Amino acid sequence: MTDERQTADGTLATTSEETSAGAPSEPAGVTDAVDVILQQWRRTRPDLDASPMGVIGRLSRAARLTGLHVDAYLRSEGLESWEFDVLATLRRAGAPYTLSSKELASASMIGAAAMTNRVARLLDRGLLTREPDAQNRRKVKIALTADGRELVDRVVEGHIENERKLLQRMAPEHQDQLARLLRLLLASLGDGTKAGTGEQCPPECPMPAVDR
Prior knowledge:
Blueprint: E1 2-6, E2 12-16, H1 33-44, H2 51-76, H3 81-92, E3 98-100, H4 101-108, H5 112-124, E4 128-132, E5 140-144, H6 146-166, H7 172-188
Antiparallel strand pairs: 1-2, 3-5, 4-5
């Protein structure tokens, strides 16, 4: 159950209790910047149901704030976030840690031209190699160098620990619940993949089940 009460300064204080198994509880009086925005819309446009802003606004702010922390850690290791993304994509592809330019661009959701520029900068750092595909000379294969693999293997451990710290105030079961809900949202936005294959899920794919 969630109770909203008016405080002396006109803001809303929220007290939540668990009403179903696995539902997160909130400390009494906790609000965030999105609550202020929603309150302003309720006051100035009471005819609007602005509740979708509560979801999208929080997703946007959470992405921005966590991104700042992630970027700060990666920069402390001498990497930009996009550099880490390229290296990590090749590393998790498995031996021989090689992908085509098209595969790299697709995994990063950026254009081929942008990926070419990123690869060129990592080539200059000695972290990647670029060679024609022996099976098809029109294709180019991008691979991790030994230095590139050593770097990403070291940095990814600290990266995961940094992310763990960002989530440490959420109970593990609430982290799992949030991950399931975000998976459902991404699938509904067309970002679903077939289980176990990584292939893009066609429209007829079933939506993932969510525990309630």
